[in-house]
Amino acid sequence: MTRVLVVEDEPQIVRALVINLRAREYDVDTASDGATALRLAVTRRPDVVLLDLGLPDMSGTDVIAALRGWSRAPILVVSARQASEDKVAALDAGADDYVTKPFGMDELLARLRAAVRRTEAGGPAHDTTVVTTEDFTIDMAAKKVDRGGRQVHLTPTEWQLLEVLVRNPGRLVSQRQLLQEVWGPTFQTQTNYLRVYMAQLRRKLEADPSRPRHFITEAGLGYRFEQT
């Protein structure tokens, strides 16, 4: 049974989440503040965390950072904060996804299931991994990409960008993280670089670059690699 830790201080939302999760046979623990959440995370070892950012005792972003010090469990932020800086801060701290309130229960549960599937399947673990999609195959060790039986030439920058995304399958990678890892810390605001190079990757690898299946844009936040 998948164990979910719900970190939320609004009783009505907690009740709705608990009812819906338990109806779908999830094991549910709840915490109304950050300190309790961190304690339960250690003792109960949740498989996934649903986390509000507006907690009474500490920032939800600090909770994410504390969890990421030792846990790789998916963290889905569920927050009324819609400002892009809040979303980026949470993602940079280590959150896997961000859902804004008010939310649709069906969508939230679908995102939760997707996060659990990604954890169970596991991402590329080492440099010998071969990642296969319907449109192309990536050999991480050889640093090669084949499409339709032919090798696709990627520039070093294109490869670096591809590698960061592929090593985080299904996870939203923030613009700032991509810019820092590919271009360096002094380029964290140069989002135009990402638009140009993502367009190049799509043109080279997507069957229909205007309707990408694998390199997905989350407007204002970042990008996501979907293998299927």
UniProtKB/TrEMBL annotation:
Function of the molecule: Member of the two-component regulatory system KdpD/KdpE involved in the regulation of the kdp operon. Upon phosphorylation by KdpD, functions as a transcription regulator by direct binding to promoter regions of target genes to positively regulate their expression.
Highest taxon listed in the record's lineage: Bacteria
Assigned keywords, A-Z: Cytoplasm, DNA-binding, Phosphoprotein, Transcription, Transcription regulation, Two-component regulatory system
Gene Ontology BP term (one): positive regulation of DNA-templated transcription
Lineage: Bacteria, Bacillati, Actinomycetota, Actinomycetes, Kitasatosporales
Record-level Gene Ontology MF annotations: cis-regulatory region sequence-specific DNA binding; identical protein binding; phosphorelay response regulator activity
Residue positions where 4-aspartylphosphate is found in the record: D52
Major location (coarse): cytoplasm
Any one Gene Ontology cellular component term annotated for this protein: protein-DNA complex
Name of the protein in its database record: Transcriptional regulatory protein KdpE
Record localization: Cytoplasm
